[in-house]
Amino acid sequence: MPETIDQIFVIVKHWLLGYVPVEVQPLFSALLSVVPILVVFPLLFAITTLLERKGLGRIQNRYGPNRTGPYGLLQPIADAVKSLTKEDVVPNTADEVVHFLAPLLLVSAALLAYAVLPVGRNMIVANLNAGVLFFFAVGSLVELAVFMAGWSSRNKYSLLGAMRAIAQMISYEVPLVLASIVVIMAAGSLSTVAIVKAQAGYAGIWPHWFVFTPWGFAGFVLFMIAATAESNRSPFDLPEGESEIIAGYYIEYSGFKFALFFLGEYLGMFATSGMAITLFLGGWAAPFSFLTWVPSYFWFFSKLLVLIAGFIWVRGTLPRLRMDQLMNFAWRFMLPMALLNIFIAGVWHFMPAGLSRWLVCIILVAAPCILLSRGLKKEKKLQVRTYRFAE
Amino acid sequence: MFGEGLLKGMAETARNFLGSYVSKDRLTTVQFPEERVAPIEASRNFPFLVYDGKDWQQGMRCVSCLICEKECPPKCIFIEKSTDKKPDATGKPQFYPAVFNIDVSVCMSCQICVEVCPFDAIKMDVAFELSTDNRFDDLLWDKQRLAKSNEYYGKIHPTEAAAVDAQLAEGRAKLEAKSKVTTEAKAVGAAVPSAQTVSGATE
Q1: What is the ipTM of this complex?
Q2: pTM for this one?
Q3: Is there a domain that residue A167 lies in?
């Protein structure tokens, strides 16, 4: 019975496929895989906007939205209606085609990444041999969309905002990919399904997730920090930076195109969180061996919600970084740590299992982390600022 | 150490998050249309015209001297002075504003009109829900809409209103005493010249 519930969507899909002629079955099968993703994740976006506003409100000792519907539950619908009915303003001098295509490309790039995410046992759109590679390749399409938006607006602010956004996204893409390499090394495969399988199994009641190893933990933390920066979320939300540059690259977008940018941003966040779950948190596997009867998709989505809650928590806590802090952090802390982590994963692989390998690897992670952060801190000497023109 | 400050901050926000569900007095929100905070006496928003007594038209203190119109920085006051005089609340014949309009959308709540008014006829209101669904009609307030009683003024700015009332009462008392003196002097004056003429006649 638990197996039936676990595989209910797969069974339903096969049952539905039985009703269509054999010639169109591949097409229909693809459709049946894609449509649920197009429904579930945008819906999750709507729910997240509400939960985020409520959570941020509570963090600031406010109620958050509570006017529209019972407990403010209809707020996403109100937001959608508002953004749909707003006037769509396009600048006179804008490159209309590119201006129109940018938000679409952003959203479709974010949606493409879901193709290789296993959201449950046997629940994946395309089980590619190079799934992780595909994921990062598609993820970098977002940069192109951002630059299209900034450039086609024919506005210096949006162009500068786009350049700034791209500088950040490219900088953080490097540690993001390097942080995930350790998992590929350990699992010996680029396929997301194989990576989840490599983490299956339990020691006692504890799962064999990569996050429970020194290099896996470091990799997970680095991956999540880079994912936060990749999806332009606080404290790395410089590209939009409302208080400094109004809205960065999408300053000239209004109405539903603006909403599409937000949708793309959140879809990207869900996708990278899903990838973090797949790489480090055992994918759809249960956290304890006695909970394996709970459906796999339930575990995937609860892990996703926990990570999103973490994102919201961080957003409610940390102030925005400065551009130089952001770049220093990426190139002088994240990158060396990510490179070192690959070495540590290698050490872990070649040392015999036991306490000594744990000890060595923990020291290898912690010591550089402390030394690096101390060293970077020492360089930052406060000095009296002189304002040449303001005095 | 690295990250200690981050963890401290995260703990603080977590405490806020959980605490706001446990203790109600953490929440500072006032759920506005249903709940309201008590009005602050010093707050001010938009001018109104004070009238004494019951009738807003007769009791209006404004004598359309046009000072506020001239002083208004964004020029949002429009006054048309009357050609005739009408008795005010005290019965004294005065000019009155035939038209007195203020444009809500232009007013910047600077209170200069109140400060320059020599008759304490214009004061600042505390009402702040001035929004309207009609962009062109409901934003130009006429004389009748602007008129509010002295009692209302006493209610929203008690201290200020008491001082104004005392000053006005003092002024009226002085005026009355003066007029009494002048009427007496007139009476005396009426008597003296006749005596002079009498004495002059005798000399």
Answers
A1: 0.78
A2: 0.81
A3: yes
